[in-house]
Amino acid sequence: MNQYKKFKEEFESIVGKSNIFIDEPMKKHISFKVGGPADLLVIPTEIDQVKKCISICKENCIPYYIIGNGSNLLVRDGGIRGAVIKLCKLNSITVEGDSITVGGGASLTNVSNVALKNNLGGFEFACGIPGSVGGAVTMNAGAYNGEVAQVIESAKVIDKQGNIKVLDKNHLELGYRMSAIQKYGYIVLEVVFRLHNEQYDHIKDRIVNLNRRRREKQPLEYPSAGSTFKRPQGYFAAKLIEDTGLKGVSVGGAQVSEKHSGFIVNRENATAKDILNLIDVVQSKVKNKFGVDLHTEVRIIGEEK
């Protein structure tokens, strides 16, 4: 029974009727295309609305989860009790000189395209990463020798007490797939990136080349959450998985990609349980063969069915 739908009107008064959903299937909101229903799904369109929605949750002891584009997320089949606050509509992008100010819900692809149009280089590494800016800062996302830490200047966040603060690069504590955002439970509202002026054609060539390499090497034809596992110290997760003989191995509708062993894909109507069981198989077999612990890069939330 959904005990939180009684708060629907209270959220509606903040975000409007079109931005609040009851018993919403999370498979419609995450790139894996799996997951049970969220009791409430709320989509704020302004920073002040985010603050107010969090206040309602805290005042009424409603558990809440913040998501962006859902591209690095796995929701279990039982769904999510409480509220999911989805920041996808905090997606403004403005350019001033060599800096770009971006809403936390903006897609990395859109930011990359705006940078290109304004002859700003340095963001090409992110052109094909399917996530949002907020998620990218939280994870210090990177690819092809680039990462968020190289281009970020500051981030506006909400802390656990509901205070809005601006953190400069040093205070973001960015490391490999980690940040102060994770460490202290902050929520990214807005980010300033500092890029550099460069010829349009040079930037465009790099974007075309990186997108070609992604299409050739990554299983973009199937739903996934990108790289499933973090890179272990001194190893590459995909090579460990492949050398364990797990390339192409399936559990239910989930499969270790035949194109790139670092990806688990939803090959054929997988459930979240299929994916989780396959993750367990991979972790266990790699540990037994190489003595290496693989930790998931994908964030896993929700309840078992």
TrEMBL record:
What does the record give as EC number? 1.3.1.98
Q: List localization entries.
A: Cytoplasm
Its recorded name reads: UDP-N-acetylenolpyruvoylglucosamine reductase
* Species whose genome carries this gene: Clostridium oceanicum
* InterPro entries to which the protein is assigned, alphabetical: FAD-bd_PCMH (IPR016166), FAD-bd_PCMH-like_sf (IPR036318), FAD-bd_PCMH_sub1 (IPR016167), FAD-bd_PCMH_sub2 (IPR016169), MurB (IPR003170), MurB_C (IPR011601), MurB_C_sf (IPR036635), Oxid_FAD_bind_N (IPR006094)
Which EC class, in a word? Answer: oxidoreductase
The segment(s) forming the FAD-binding PCMH-type domain are 34-198
Active-site positions, per UniProt? R177, S227 (proton donor), E297
Reaction catalysed by this chain?
UDP-N-acetyl-alpha-D-muramate + NADP(+) = UDP-N-acetyl-3-O-(1-carboxyvinyl)-alpha-D-glucosamine + NADPH + H(+)
State the family it belongs to: Belongs to the MurB family.
What is an example of a Pfam family matching this protein? FAD_binding_4
User: Superkingdom of the source?
Assistant: Bacteria
Keyword vocabulary terms for this entry: Cell cycle, Cell division, Cell shape, Cell wall biogenesis/degradation, Cytoplasm, FAD, Flavoprotein, NADP, Oxidoreductase, Peptidoglycan synthesis
Q: Which NCBIfam families match?
A: murB, PRK13905.1
The biological pathway it contributes to is: Cell wall biogenesis; peptidoglycan biosynthesis
Q: What is known about what this protein does?
A: Cell wall formation.
